[in-house]
Write a structure and sequence with these properties.
With 144 residues, the chain is mostly helical. It has five helices and no strands. Helix 1 runs parallel beside helix 3 and helix 2 runs parallel beside helix 4.
Length: 144
C-alpha cells in the first residue's frame, strides 16, 4: 500500500510542472502568447536536459525519467497545437514539433535503456534551446 501511495505521489509530482506551465500559458494575453510559448518551450527543453543528465548519471530512476519526459512531451504537444493555430513563423512551428518528437524519443530510449538515443535526444533539446535563445537575445543572460 505504501509503495502504491509513493508511486502516486511521484507521478503526481512529475505531472504537476506540466500542468502549471499550461495554466500559466493559458493565462497569458494573446499579444504575448508567442513569447510566452517560446519561454515555456525553452523551460521544458531545459527540464528534459536536466532529467536526461541525471538519468545518465544514475541519479534518477528510469520510471521517474520516463514519467517526467512523458509530461514534458504532453506540454510540448499542447504548445505545438497552440502554435499551429497562431500567426508565428514556420520555423517556430517546426521547432515546436522537433521538441515534441525529441521528448517522445527520449522517453522511448530510456524505456529501452538505449543511452545512445537518449544522448541524441539530449543534443536535440540543446540545439532547440540554442535556437530559442538566438530568436530572443534577451534570454542569453539565463542561457549562456
Amino acid at each position: 500500500m505504501a509503495r502504491i501511495a509513493a508511486s502516486f505521489v511521484n507521478i503526481t509530482l512529475c505531472l504537476l510542472p506540466g500542468a502549471v506551465m499550461l495554466a500559466c500559458l493559458a493565462a497569458c494575453s494573446s499579444s504575448n502568447a508567442a513569447g510566452q510559448q517560446a519561454q515555456t518551450s525553452k523551460s521544458a527543453a531545459n527540464s528534459a536536459i536536466m532529467v536526461i543528465d541525471n538519468w545518465i548519471a544514475g541519479a534518477v530512476p528510469s520510471h521517474y525519467a520516463e514519467a517526467t519526459l512523458r509530461s514534458l512531451a504532453q506540454t510540448l504537444a499542447d504548445l505545438d497545437r497552440q502554435l499551429q493555430r497562431t500567426d508565428v513563423s514556420d520555423s517556430s512551428k517546426q521547432l515546436a514539433r522537433q521538441l515534441t518528437a525529441a521528448a517522445g524519443r527520449a522517453e522511448d530510449a530510456i524505456k529501452s535503456g538505449n543511452q545512445g538515443q537518449v544522448e541524441q535526444a539530449r543534443q536535440d533539446f540543446r540545439n532547440a534551446v540554442a535556437k530559442l535563445v538566438v530568436a530572443n537575445p534577451a534570454d542569453q543572460a539565463t542561457n549562456p
